């Protein structure tokens, strides 16, 4: 569970590859707060999940897939209104499971259709049923915030090279996983003030801290920051001066087409071309 506004992992779990991701997501809920808005991709809109969220009074926005609920399927075809409030009931085959967990046997949700720049439709199911307080045109921007979670995975896997484990035992894998997640949050916290300074600069494009610079600086200063008797303020000031070097520009309007590469090409990159920088 990732806080996309503050760029911090709120809760992390390393589980079996066959684990049901909806169940893992439900386990994260104990770490949420009253006014949190939970954003999920299209793997999560099952009735069981929606009923659990509604039962716990959680606010959510979830992308629907083409095989999702009937209202979502018709809206993806361009049928009906862009905002529809619907009462859902579980499939008869799932009713016993719903009853076993004391979940509601019907829930009222809202389906919102948004149009992408490509002309394609995207349908979101949400607990925000008030169409006046939450107009449909705002949902595209809201759901776009979820891309921050994808960026977080990219940092873990590429910049921090998470999958290059330091050992082969389960314990070493757990240590590498949780220390990497911790380090990512530490970087977000330490660079927050510097990012505000960079954003305030009068430049053509807004700037932010370069992750290559920040993670390298933290790597070299981590012992002094976390384990030494050196004054923390002194180490942080030193880090902040490094964070200000070589900032990167934020180009929100830039559109880079996604390139689909073959598995052979990807394997060659991982084995022969990728440079481990952390």
Write the layout of secondary structure elements.
Layout: E1 2-3, E2 8-9, H1 21-28, E3 37-40, H2 47-55, E4 59-63, H3 70-76, E5 83-88, H4 95-100, E6 107-115, E7 121-126, H5 139-144, H6 147-159, H7 170-199, E8 207-208, H8 211-226, H9 232-243, E9 248-249, H10 263-273
Parallel strand pairs: 3-4
Antiparallel strand pairs: 1-2, 4-7, 5-6, 6-7, 8-9
Structure description:
The chain has two domains: 144 residues, no CATH class; 126 residues, no CATH class. The chain is 42% helix and 14% strand. Strand 3, helix 2 and strand 4 form a beta-alpha-beta unit.
Number of strands: 9
Estimated share of beta-strand residues: 5-15%
Distance between the termini: 24 Å
- Classify the secondary structure makeup into a structural class: alpha+beta
Summarize the structure.
By secondary structure, this protein is α+β, with helices and mostly antiparallel strands. Helices cover 42% and strands 14% of the residues. The protein contains ten helices and nine strands.
Core attributes:
10 helices, 2 domains, globular, 5-stranded mixed β-sheet, alpha+beta, 9 strands, single chain
């Amino acid at each position: 569970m990732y806080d996309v506004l503050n760029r911090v992992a709120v809760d992390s779990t390393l589980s079996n590859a066959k684990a049901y991701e909806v169940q893992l997501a439900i386990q994260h809920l104990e770490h949420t707060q009253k006014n949190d808005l939970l954003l999920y991709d299209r793997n999560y809109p099952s009735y069981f999940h929606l009923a659990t969220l509604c039962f716990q009074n959680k606010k959510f926005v979830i992308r629907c897939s083409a095989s999702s609920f009937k209202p979502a399927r018709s809206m993806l075809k361009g049928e009906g209104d862009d905002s529809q409030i619907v009462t859902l009931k579980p499939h008869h085959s799932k009713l016993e499971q719903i009853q076993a967990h004391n979940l509601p046997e019907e829930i009222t949700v809202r389906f919102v259709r948004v149009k992408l720049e490509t002309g394609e439709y995207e349908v979101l199911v949400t607990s925000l049923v008030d169409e006046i307080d939450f107009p449909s045109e705002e949902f595209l921007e809201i759901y776009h915030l979820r891309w921050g979670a994808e960026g977080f995975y990219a940092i873990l896997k590429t910049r921090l090279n998470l999958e290059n484990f330091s050992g082969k035992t389960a314990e070493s894998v757990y240590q590498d996983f949780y220390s990497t997640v911790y380090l990512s949050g530490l970087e977000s916290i330490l660079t927050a003030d510097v990012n505000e300074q960079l954003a305030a600069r009068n430049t053509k494009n807004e700037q932010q801290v370069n992750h290559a610079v920040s993670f390298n600086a933290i790597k070299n200063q981590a012992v002094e920051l976390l384990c030494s008797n050196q004054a923390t303020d002194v180490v942080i000031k030193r880090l902040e001066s490094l964070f200000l070097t070589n900032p990167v520009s934020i180009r929100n309007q830039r559109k880079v087409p996604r390139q689909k590469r073959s598995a052979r090409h990807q394997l060659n990159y991982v084995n022969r071309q990728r440079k481990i920088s952390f």
